[in-house]
Design goal:
heterotrimer, B: 720 residues, mainly alpha, 30 helices, elongated, C: 100 residues, Helix Hairpins
């Protein structure tokens, strides 16, 4: 029962944070709501016997990635933006209606397919701890792991090239303007 | 003796025979490719060297044939193989072909040497020294082609050489293709070359028909094969041999300038004088005589053809001699004389006197080459005196000697007279004292031509007359008359050119030619004087030598009557000419030819215009052809074919059809379909382009709608 | 104990909210965050099924998803910065030149 209670509370927090992201006027708030949502998900991961993933969720996602988001928001000064109106204002209510429709369909499918019969007990000893994850990662998934390093390198190079080129172009255009 | 030693030791040089073709070819190639870089001395060395090597090769062939006179065949390459029909390029070395080789390369080498000096002046007078190398390239090419002609062992190979020398003749007649004979800008020389080429085509047409006929009835074109079948074919198809021999005769009249195709040779004098000497006097034009001699087996089987050949030769000899007496151009006289002498040879070989014909060919090559080269020397002598070149110290000295005289004379010339013609005999006179070597050698050649004993021309001509008296009395009459005229025009020319006093400044200051030219003249003069003893009565070395290559022929013994008559005729004719022309010695300016007074202006002009033979051809063939071409072009092609058939019938019908297809069919149906289709696609696109709004979120919305609809459909499927 | 379907339902709910947010908001940065939310919802489903079937592969897949998300965020934010330099705005509706 304690598990159920904990699930309901954390789930409610996660949903509330998600809705906060949806409706927050300020982008900084939206980011902070997302951080909250991620913490809630980390708790759920712990409940599901994935302590390693939970830690990664907090350090990488809530920590590094969201900090990067906040940093960019601050850098661009784009926290305030008029959200309603605009050329395609008509699709906002349509999006809400479609969202509700999708939720109804998914709810039907989830409960029709899984039911509520399968109850998740506390995990067996050692399931999902860093030791087990590490063994699987470096034995079974060694090649994909190495490939992700290449992917990250490419992303890094790409980001640098994009930003650098933009700067060079801005510089040259400003020079042209001076002339 | 040397010959016996060679014979006994047994070395033969037949395998070297192809060099006679390929060395001159190599020389020509070198001069064509690198001539401009070699300089005149280099070009001359290459050309003369190549010709001399060919001569040495010919002499080696002669040595190899000593003692055993059988023909030797030297294969060079397989040429044509069509089924059973095979033609190889092989050389036939026998006494006949070696005779021709020796004449062509021997006289050819001498003329090459002469030309090295002559062309030195010629290219400078024409202001194009760079053409020197081209001349010698053509000259060597000619030697190579002539070697192919005389050594070919089949009619087809002979024909290749025949055409090759024709090409060289064309190239060299038109060597100064942008000038006329006086050096003025004109197309005259080019037209002369074209005329020679076209007239020769008519003869070649006959030669080709002969080859085709031989191929059809004999199945081979090789000499051995053809001769072996003569009697067989003569028995089966009596007229075939007559056709072949007459077709060959047509070819001979073209190449050897006989009636009716001789008209090209006088115009061929447009080429530089060494060309006239080598090609149009000594060698190429005698190819026809060689061809008939080579085909002796064929001709001996058809007496009618022999008579025709002899008659053509005799008539040509006489007619051309009449033309020669009325010419003023020093080279034109020699040209008509050459035609006439070729007539002697053709008449001789025609009536079966092959040895006499070939003998006259050899002696004629000596003295006619000498005369042409002498005339070239005279022309250059006058040209140098008239118009000294800056790099010609000898001429400059003469010009300085008569300095103001010449200048005044020159100015007068330019102001009041036609350009100075160094070939016109009326501009000469008294050259004997100015240019003695040229003059004396020329006189030797001229007397040989006139047939005075003991010079070469006497022996060979006498032999022809002797045979003619025996074989064809009519031809004997024609030839005797021709001999009379020959002595006449020779004397006329000698008097006009060398005796009397100079009639122009240029003649008065003529300059003797350099040693390269006079040396050749002296050599040829010696040959012209002594060459007759090759076959003099009692010696008959030439006759015995040739017998190996010819069917059996009887040789007539020397007849004092015939020799006496011909000598008497020549002397009488010379005396007549002397009495007519001796007053020329005192002439100051030219008015009328004495002969014109005797013959009357009409007849003299008729002879001078070569019996209006050219005008006749122009009226009948050229203008007829032009009229036919005009009719075909204007009436048949333009009016009927183009205007009526094409424009009215074809184009009109097509236009109507295309109008129908264009308006109702294309615009009404096909275009309409395409336009309607395009319009509807365009309308649809106008509607659909609204979907492509550019808003990313709208695209995301459409994805979302798709997901919701798909899941809804699945739900509906499951529930149902 | 909590049934698997509850976790999956929660994941679906979060995913829908994320998707609606993508359609709803004009701030490009917030749209990016909504995409992250959707990824997280998918991760939750992975982890839940990994627990149900007691297989670690699900968790490792989440690990790889996170790596890819990190790469995506790096490039995406670089793009946003570049666009901001020319447009001086992060309004996604301002970028609609690519249209028919």
């Amino acid at each position: 029962m304690a598990f159920m209670t904990l699930f309901i509370i954390t789930g409610a927090v996660a949903v509330a944070a998600a809705l906060g992201l949806l409706f927050a006027r300020n982008a900084v708030y939206a980011a902070l709501f997302l951080v909250l949502n991620m913490f809630a998900l980390a708790v759920l991961y712990l409940m599901l016997g994935a302590p390693f993933i939970a830690m990664v969720q907090i350090t990488v996602y809530a920590g590094a990635i969201m900090v990067l988001f906040l940093f960019v928001i601050m850098l661009l000064g784009a926290e305030q933006l008029k959200e309603d109106g605009g050329p395609i204002a008509w699709q906002r209510p349509l999006a809400l209606v479609l969202g509700v429709a999708l939720l109804l369909e998914v709810t039907y499918f989830v409960f029709a397919a899984l039911g509520t019969g399968v109850r998740l007990l506390p995990p067996p000893e050692g399931f999902g701890d860093p030791h087990a994850v590490g063994l699987t990662l470096f034995q079974q998934y060694l090649l994909p792991f190495e490939v992700t390093s290449v992917l990250l390198l490419v992303a890094m190079v790409g980001a640098i090239v994009l930003v650098k080129n933009g700067r060079a172009r801005a510089a040259s255009s400003s020079e042209a303007g001076e002339q | 003796m040397l010959f016996d030693a060679v014979h006994n030791a047994g070395p033969t040089f037949f395998h070297l025979a192809p060099l006679a073709v390929f060395i001159p070819l190599l020389g020509a190639t070198i001069n064509f490719l690198f001539g401009r870089r070699l300089g005149e001395r280099g070009v001359a060395s290459v050309a003369v060297g190549a010709a001399a090597v060919a001569f040495v090769v010919s002499v080696l062939q002669w040595l190899s044939l000593q003692g055993h006179h059988e023909a030797v065949t030297v294969p060079i390459v397989e040429w044509l193989t069509i089924g059973d029909f095979q033609v190889a390029w092989a050389q036939r070395i026998d006494t006949l072909s070696v005779t021709m080789m020796l004449v062509v390369t021997g006289v050819g080498t001498l003329i090459h040497i002469y030309a090295t000096a002559y062309m030195h002046y010629d290219v400078r007078y024409k202001n194009d020294p760079r053409r020197y190398a081209r001349f010698f390239g053509f000259f060597n090419l000619f030697i190579a082609m002539m070697m192919i002609l005389v050594t070919g062992d089949s009619y087809l190979t002979l024909f290749v050489g025949w055409e090759g020398v024709g090409l060289c003749s064309f190239l060299l007649i038109g060597f100064w293709y942008e000038y006329d004979i006086l050096g003025n800008p004109s197309t005259a020389n080019a037209r002369a070359a074209k005329k020679a080429f076209v007239v020769n085509r008519v003869g070649d047409f006959g030669f080709l028909l002969a080859i085709f006929t031989l191929f059809w009835y004999f199945g081979t074109v090789e000499f051995e094969g053809v001769f072996a079948k003569v009697h067989e074919v003569a028995a089966q198809h009596p007229n075939v041999l007559l056709a072949v021999t007459l077709f060959l005769l047509l070819g001979v009249t073209g190449k050897s300038a006989q009636i009716p195709l001789f008209v090209w040779l006088p115009d061929a004098m447009a080429g530089p004088t060494p060309v006239s000497a080598l090609i149009h006097a000594a060698t190429m034009v005698t190819a026809g005589v060689y061809l008939i001699t080579r085909s002796a087996e064929l001709y001996l089987a058809v007496p009618q053809a022999q008579a025709a050949v002899a008659l053509v030769g005799g008539l040509t000899a006489l007619v051309a001699a009449t033309m020669a007496v009325a010419q003023y151009d020093i080279k034109k006289v020699l040209a008509y004389s050459t035609i006439s002498q070729l007539g002697f040879m053709v008449a001789a070989v025609g009536m079966g006197a092959f040895v006499a014909g070939m003998f006259h060919l050899v002696t004629h090559a000596f003295f006619k080459a000498l005369l042409f080269l002498g005339s070239g020397s005279v022309i250059i002598a006058l040209e140098r005196a008239h118009h000294p070149l800056p790099d010609d110290p000898e001429a400059q000295a003469v010009a300085g000697h008569h300095g103001h005289d010449h200048a005044a004379h020159h100015g007068e010339h330019d102001a009041h007279h036609a350009p100075f013609d160094p070939q016109d005999m009326r501009n000469m006179g008294g050259l004997l004292r100015r240019i003695p070597v040229t003059s004396w050698t020329y006189i030797v050649g001229a007397l040989a031509l006139a047939g005075l004993p003991p010079l070469a021309g006497f022996w060979s001509k006498d032999e022809i007359l002797l045979e003619a008296k025996h074989l064809q009395p009519v031809v004997y009459g024609l030839l005797t008359a021709a001999a009379f005229l020959t002595a006449f025009y020779v004397t006329r020319q000698l008097v006009m050119v060398f005796l009397g006093k100079p009639r122009t400044e240029a003649a008065a200051h003529a300059i003797e030619s350099p040693r390269a030219m006079t040396g050749v003249l002296v050599t040829l003069a010696v040959l012209s004087a002594l060459g007759g003893f090759l076959n003099a009565p009692g010696v008959h070395a030439f006759g015995h030598w040739l017998e190996a290559s010819l069917p059996e022929i009887e040789t007539l013994p020397f007849n004092l009557t015939v020799a006496g008559i011909s000598t008497a005729v020549a002397l009488f004719s010379m005396a007549l000419a002397w009495s007519l022309y001796r007053r020329v010695r005192a002439w100051e300016a030219w008015q009328h030819d004495p002969l014109e007074k005797v013959l009357g202006p009409g007849l003299f002009d008729f002879l001078r215009q070569a019996w209006h033979w050219d005008d006749f051809y122009r009226a009948v063939f050229v203008q007829g052809y032009d009229a036919l071409a005009a009719f075909l072009a204007h009436t048949v092609d333009w009016r009927f074919w183009h205007d009526w058939f094409h424009d009215t019938i074809v184009a009109g019908t097509y236009r109507r059809l295309s109008r129908f297809l264009a308006r109702p069919v294309d615009l009404g149906i096909i275009d309409r379909i395409a336009n309607e289709l395009a319009g509807s696609v365009q309308g649809l696109a106008l509607v659909l382009r609204g979907l492509q709004s550019g808003f990313v979120r709208t695209y995301a919305l459409s994805v979302f709608v798709g997901v919701v609809l798909m899941l809804g459909y699945l739900w509906w499927v499951i529930v149902r | 104990m909590v049934p698997t379907s509850f976790y999956i339902f929660l994941a679906a709910l979060l995913f829908t909210i994320g998707a609606v947010a993508v359609l709803f908001r004009r701030n490009t940065l917030v749209i990016y965050m909504a995409v992250e939310l959707m990824l997280n919802a998918a991760n939750l489903a992975f982890v839940a099924f990994a627990r149900q079937f007691e297989a670690l592969d699900g968790q490792l897949f989440v690990f790889f998803v996170m790596t890819v998300a990190a790469a995506e965020v790096a490039v995406g934010l670089a793009l946003i910065v570049t666009i901001f330099r020319t447009k001086h705005s992060v309004d996604i509706d301002a970028m609609h030149e690519l249209k028919g």
